[in-house]
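In this notation, each integer encodes one residue's backbone shape. One such record reads:

___
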Amino acid sequence: MKEIRDKIAALISSYQKQLDLYEQIRDVGAQERDLIAHGHLDQLLLVLQEKEALLKEAGAEETQIRSTQDFLTRHFELVSFSIPQLKQLASHRYHQDIASLEAVVARLVPVLELLEEQERDNEALLNEYLEQVKGYSADHLQAKRAQRAYKPSKQ
């Protein structure tokens, strides 16, 4: 009984750590947007490195989560990990623990959805910025060539 409670508590802890990391990633994503909008690509690269480090940490928690979920899946003889099935099959003494698990996952899901949307928006903004810069550069070079064509050559 204590082992199962400890596993559920570890799962809650891992999800909470992920939630904290994903909230930090959300904040970094807001910085990304500002840096892209202002064309500060050097600073953007630094922010993206920070984001990558946070994502690695979240990935490490994901590994721990999968391991704990696998243990609970085997223990409760589930086909796959599912909180509703876990609530159904677990004895009443685990219901409070499972409710806490369900609560942290419920807070995590909207953050993940927001991150997905933020990532799409930032990628679109970056692509738009790059198209503008590319267009500017091509126009700028073309104007320089045209300018040279109209200047009398020095002899």
Notes: The chain has a mean pLDDT of 89. The CA atoms of residues 24 and 111 lie 10 Å apart. Residues 2-118 form one domain.
